[in-house]
Amino acid sequence: MYKNNRGLSRRNLILGSSAFAAGLTLSPYSINAYSSEEENKLNFYNWDTYIGEDTLSNFKSETGVVTKIDFFADNDELFAKLREGNPGYDVIVPSNNFVEKMIEANMLSPLNHNKIKNISNIETRFLNASFDKNRKYSLPYMWGTMGIGYAKDKVKEIPDSWSFIYESDKYSGRIAMLSEAADVIGMGLKYLGHSINSKNPSHYKEVEELIISQKKHIKVFAEDNGQDLLASRDVYLAQEWNGDVGQVMLEDNNIDYLIPKEGSLIWEDCLCIPNGAPHPNNAHKFIDYIYDANVGAEIADYIQYATPNKAARKLLGDDYNKNTSIFPEESVLDKCESQLYLGEDILKIIEDSWTRIRAA
Amino acid sequence: MTKKQSIIRRGPLEYSKIKWLKYFSVVFFIVLYAPIINLIIFSFNDSRLNIVWRGFTIKYYVKALQNETLILSFINSLSIAFISTMISTLIGLSAAICLWKFNFRLKTYYDLSLLVPIIIPEICMGVAMLIFFNSVHWPVFTIWPLNLSEIIIAHISFSFPFVVIIIRARLGNLNKSLIEASKDLGATEWITFRYVIFPFIKPALIASSLLTFILSLDDFIITFFTSGPNNITLPVKIYSMVRFGVSPEINAASTILIMIVIISTVLIIKFLNYEKDLK
Amino acid sequence: MDSWKVKKKFFTFSIIPGFAWIMVFFFLPLAFVWIMSFGEKSNIIDVVITGTLDNYTRAFDRVYFKVLAHSFLISLITTFICLIISLPIAFLISFSSRRIKTFLMILIILPFWTNLLIRTYSLIAILRTEGHVNKILEFLWIKINNVLLFLGIYDGQLTPNEFIPLNLLYNNFSVIFGLVYIYIPFMIIPIYVVLDKFDKSYIEASLDLGAGQIKTLFKIIIPLIYPGIISGVLLVLIPCLGSFVTPDLLGGSNSQMIGNVIERQFKSANDWPFGAALSFLLIYITIGLILIHSLFSKKIVEEKIL
Q1: How far is CA A98 from CA B79, B176, C93, C197, in A?
Q2: Nearest 10 degrees: Cα torsion A342, A345, A347, A349
Q3: Which of A159, A180, A247, C174 is the most exposed place for a label (fewest CB within 10 A)?
Q4: Are strands C39-41 and C47-49 parallel, antiparallel or unpaired?
Q5: Do B258 and B36 contact (CB within 8 A), yes or no?
Q6: Considering only CB atoms, which chain A residues are within 8 Å of C121?
Q7: Residue C142 C-beta-side C-alpha neighbours within 13 Å
Q8: Between B243 and B197, whose confidence is greater?
Q9: Is residue C270 predicted with pLDDT exceeding 80?
Q10: Do the Cβ atoms of B275 and B96 come closer than 8 Å?
């Protein structure tokens, strides 16, 4: 690989001397925009380790399109990066509430469903979404839940309620909350019996007080390493995403994951094409490729998240399909909500109250 | 040390022989290296988690060396660090000389303005750069190293003031009579610079370029906002990768980098000594 | 120091690269953000420049003062510890033989070739409850107990009965530890660079004249390496103030710094005008403090650094 890259760049250098002058006069968006004859390239902006190991190279050998991948670490980064204009990405993977936010901000281009034949492989309940009517702009890539990861050898009972995290001194100093304001506060709303998507400011005040009084029992607002803290027993209870806890469950039998009885939050990462994408045709081709049964199965098998691709699920065994940390039971799912984009005013309330919580 | 002094058990200036200073520095280096040794050891651990030892393996080295994007981002980050260090050292040097040598109106303001890139919160500068490159329609290059131009420019902007500060601290101790002597002997500005000032500030130049190099290598936020699909860098890759916890693959890659640095410095030092012996 | 009029050509040649660079590639981009701090969000992504000062007045809320004061405290402690550690280390390097000098310099820089994030996670592995430091302490604790038991001095147990691991992580201690770890070369190097070339006969003279080591340190050495110390303090204190990765990863539930608040405005809060206002307030406060400092120590500072 190393050799290949070097060779490529050397050849580019030689070609470059002539292309240099041309390159200077080109503006970022004029390159091949929306022409039917696209160069065989695709720029994919994804989370890291969130696609099959060979998916991109197989895509290349099948279609001839070379995919360049770049990574972001959270939705806020993705949004901030694209806010001032698309620097050249063709396919991006935002989560549900950000899909809605980006639609609202007019940052996504509509998908042409006719070009995505494999859309028939997607489970029907995913073909409409509260955050994107009729899936005009987005298609589901992977989905999951938020819940409580816990160490079975340290926690005596099954922590089946959010009260263990939000209102209890039982495991004082051994509790980790997430550090994303909207997620932590949203789940607080759920615990107090409100909707995750409440627009009532007084509900937010209640949650703020709840978390401030619970703060002395919380060891850390974990950035994205709650699962590591569990594995090292620095904490016994962690509010975490199912996939993250799943990673450590593979190696540590004493760690388990559950969705508390109050219900929880369902997230869904989606494939979208941002406005100004230089290769929209390839982007459609790529999205179609992802929903192929075999490809979908390969990805799901590698990253161990829940796929909405029913044809792919048929190819995978019970290890995957019957794993309740990946696919919770329907009765549990019924109590879960997905986060919506609540508008800038509510987001400001959330952020301000988070600053006060952290400073308290 | 003169011969006479070396007869005394410890000369007044042989601080390296003071006992507590020795112990202190040993402890210092142990603490400094503890995390590095830890990551080297765990890069051979047969577990995705860096928590318990589950047996020796080199599979993460194989994985790291096969990871195309990881290697590409490595090469990109090193190129960025190398180029931006070279340029910021040159710019920093000229600015430091100018501020040291001349009196001019607005000098204090120029001086203070050089501190702003250090003061400014990284994310604010990152966003500033993002808006800037967007509004001037900075061209998209796919040719190395031009594809890295935005990141390199941003890195120079925040790192050359570091060079200025360090070089000026050193110049503050330059005995001005040396320069006058050189001029009295008829040397031109260039000759004085070449044979008096330059040798004097050389250690500061080396030290500050080492610092700017690691500054550039470590920067995430500004790099993130100035990068695009054509220039993936190591910090951007790593920040996204650790979302699932630090994998031993990253530890393996870091170990390889450290080994490359150690080997190349040893070679350079050997080579320099060899040259000196020849002379 | 010459007036610029004496050697116009040299002056122009030396001032242009730095000045032009910082104007075009720093202050021009920064101007966009500065203007934005006087704007209001009109929808999710658009900002209308209305000349409002709301973003600044909003920053005068008590909660931000609290965060800012906390950040200053943490940064000052970090800088002070860095200084205490760096002085002896810089001494050791500059008084070593040439070959060892290079070796030591490289030894100090080498760990920083690993990415900040990786180093921080490695630090977590060492400091955590079941981490290496606590393991070593527990081992020692058991050994001491065994020795005591063997000697029959004590009935086999130190109080408390069981080894209680130290809480080394997720508090302000770990934030300061992490910051010192990250910024230490930025203190050592400027001090070393100055210490390295000053005339060591001053020290000898002072010692010969009967001043003790301590007196020599404070009366001779520190004043002479003052420019190095000031540079080091600048290079550690200022970046510390804006740091956010370390408090995020090593801090506990109380370790929010101003850098974290600013970062959130640009990211999750999506409130760039307010983030810009906070950033500029931080810049103004820092520059103000530097100016105050230079007024107080005008003589030294004018000569040596500012």
Answers
A1: 34, 62, 53, 57
A2: -130
A3: A180
A4: antiparallel
A5: yes
A6: 225
A7: 6
A8: B197
A9: yes
A10: no
Among candidate residues C305, A322, C292, C165, the one with its CA nearest the CA of residue B167: C305
* Alpha carbon separation from B208 to B214, C40, C78, C187, C231 (Å, rounded): 10, 41, 21, 12, 12
Is the same domain home to A124 and A202? no
Q: Please determine, for residue A13, whether its predicted confidence score (pLDDT) is greater than 60.
A: no
Nearest to B16 by CA among C207, C100, C198: C100
User: Which residues on chain B are in Cβ contact (under 8 Å) with A47?
Assistant: 240, 243
Same domain, A342 and A285: no
Classified by CATH at the fold level, domain C61-128+168-304 comes out as MetI-like fold (1.10.3720)
Q: Which residues of A80-100 are buried (b: 16+ CB within 10 A; e: fewer)?
A: bbbbbbbbbbbbbbbbbbbbb
Instruction: Look up tokens 């393991």; give the residue.
Output: C135
Look at residue C298 and tell me whether its pLDDT is greater than 60.
no
Find, among B195, B205, C129, the residue nearest to A229 by Cα. Answer: C129
How many angstroms from the chain centroid is the CA of residue A294? Answer: 22
Provide the H-helix boundaries in chain B.
3-7, 19-42, 59-66, 68-101, 107-113, 116-119, 122-135, 149-171, 176-184, 189-192, 198-218, 221-226, 234-241, 248-278
For A68, the 3-state DSSP assignment is: strand
Residue B86 Cα, gap to closest chain A Cα (Å): 21
Cβ neighbors of C228 (< 8 A, separation 6 or more) are: B169, B170, C90, C190, C191, C192, C193, C194, C195
In a domain, residue A28? The reply is no
Residue-number span of the structural domain to which A227 is assigned: 144-265+327-359
Strand, coil or helix: what is A140?
Answer: strand
Nearest residue of A to residue C262 by CA position?
A355
The domains located in chain B, with CATH, are: 80-232 (1.10.3720.10)
Contact C38, C235 (CB under 8 A): no
The neighbour count for residue A215, using CB atoms within 10 Å, is 16
- For CA atoms C121, C123, C128, C130, give the dihedral sign: positive
Residue B156 in contact with residue B84, Cβ under 8 Å? yes
Of residues C9 and A254, the one with the higher pLDDT is A254
Integer Cα distance of C14 and C7 in angstroms? 11
Buried b (16+ CB within 10 A) or exposed e, A133-158: eebebbbbbbbbbbbbbbbeeebeee
B48 vs A1: CB contact, 8 Å cut-off?
A: no
CB within 8 Å of A22: residues ≥ 6 apart: none
Contact A167, A217 (CB under 8 A): no
Number of other residues whose CB lies within 10 A of the CB of residue B86: 15
| B116-169 pLDDT per residue, tens | 999 999 999 999 999 999 999 888 887 888 889 999 999 999 999 999 999 998
State the Cα–Cα distance between residues C122 and C228, nearest whole angstrom: 31
C115 with C249: CB under 8 angstroms?
no
| CATH code: domain of residue A349 | 3.40.190.10
Chain B residues whose CB is inside 8 A of the A225 CB are: 242, 245
| Neighbouring subunits of C (3+ Cβ pairs under 8 A) | A, B
As a whole number of angstroms, the distance between CA A332 and CA A158 comes to 16
Note whether A179 and C248 are within 8 A (CB).
yes
Amino acid at site A240: E
Distance separating alpha carbons of residues B190 and C174, to the nearest angstrom: 50
Q: How far apart are CA C170 and CA B49, in angstroms?
A: 20
- Distance, in angstroms, between B164 CA and closest chain C CA? 9
Residues A122 and A213 in one domain: no
Give the C-alpha separation, C11 to A299, whole Å.
62
Residue A346: is its pLDDT beyond 60? yes
Residues A285-305: b if buried by 16+ CB within 10 A, e if exposed: bbbbbbbbbebbbbbbbebbb
Q: Rounded to whole angstroms, how far apart are CA atoms B176 and C294?
A: 23
**Minimal C-alpha gap between C266 and chain A (Å):** 7
